[in-house]
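Support request, please re-run this one:
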Amino acid sequence: MARTPTSDPGIADAPAWPLARPTYASLEAAVQGEASRWNVPGMSVAVLHDGKVESVGTGITSIATRQPVTPATIFQIGSISKVFTATVAMQLVDEGKLDLDEPIITYVPELPLADPGTRAGITLRHVFSHSGGFEGDTFTDFGRGDEANATAVAEFGSLKQWFALGELFSYNNNGYTLAGLVIERVTGQPFEQVVEERLFKPLQLDSTVYFAENAITYPHAVGHYLRKREEGPAIARPYSFPRHINAPGGIIATAGDLIRFAQMHIAGGELDGARIISQESAELMQTPYISSWDQNCSFGQGWYITEYPDLKIVQHGGSTMGFRAMLRFAPDRGFAIALLANGDSGTSAYDSIHEWALQHYLGFTMPKPAAITLPDAELDRLAGLYGRQNIRMDVTREGERLRLRSFEIDSETGEEKEDGPFSVGAPLSLEAIESTRTHDFQVVGGPMDGAIIDFPPSPAKDDPDRILIRVGGRVSERLNTMPKPDRARSKVSVGARASKSRKGSGGSLSPDVPEDAIGDDDEAKSRKSTRKSKSKNT
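Re-run finished. Output below.
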């Protein structure tokens, strides 16, 4: 169904968000046009096609310094970092130092998890596919020392077990922190050093770093929030991360370096004569293992995979404090695109550029899901109060649609905020779409237009009436009463907040989101990150 531009839900007389993309003749025009349309301060985009790389930078790195974005500018890439973590692990698998199916307690015997069965059985295969079943967003700042990952993992005993091991996809940043610790244990080196020596150097990723003190030695962007279009962007502060976030989302890089990383995966684990991982490992990472929140999108080992009849897209997104990032490639066509933005409306811009690029370079048009009408009784059944950790969501019925509002609950004061890092921002209007599963919905209007939110069937055999919602790939459950906020946990957010069905994830730290996430971001459609993503301690 055709749509017209709409104002932000819940913001009276706000300027309309654009929904109709103009026609562009070049990548430069598309990047400049979409960054402007979506109020993104700056973007850097690189495309691999027919063996050649084309790069474009537009806008500014910061509204304070007004320095121009160029292809040499580095951006936080958020949860795309997860694929680097998984790639290093696969390299260690190739060397016989790790086994994807060996229980993680073999490497981290002190691992504390609330569910004994999960503790005994969880493997890296579960971690890399977000199927561990335990709460995934409970980060606190454990300092900058080499013990940061171990200290963070030592707190995992308090994490809620949402479902049994391997039963359902739910985006899990904590799992990747655990993977970082596993890598440290088998190599005897700090995580970041392992990734630098095994990936950054042999792939010649010369502008890819961890840590803010390294980023400031390169031309770098800073993140921005766009809370209301009429007010314009504001700089996202602070910039840096707690160290244990590095494995799930700490890399800062150029779009060009991400293209080189993608080229290695497209080529089956090798680039310019340097063998990084085996062909078998590269293929395994790109092989669907578990379905995600989007019926067209599965997750492998570190990558989201969308398989259309005529095209396979592999991707991951990222969402951090005022940054949005996406890396996507079509392995059978030798095509890749890396999109980096320093504004939280960047997901809408990069999704639109990606759709344009697929049509422009490959002649492929992204399919759109068809809207359907659910019975009134079914919409009423899904309405209610949902919650997870320090967030609550109110789902109400509005005619033939649902309306979703989310509130972050401050862990110290109990105060509820509608624009916190775990919330979706302004209220969302949800319409049901055709699905082979129970119930899938897409967001209508605003910067999250097309994002997928689903109500997965409960995997719990002893509680078949349990109703779940999955927003940004993260599972929440319907509640009779809201649990007290966990005062022991901070609000660092490293994932894509919601996923855009039309474009493949995300992820995100997506996915875009998810990032991304927001994977997160997620992406036969994409992970789309929500408009707010920040960290108390980063």
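The chain has a mean pLDDT of 86. Residues 81-200 form a domain with the Beta-lactamase fold (CATH 3.40.710.10).
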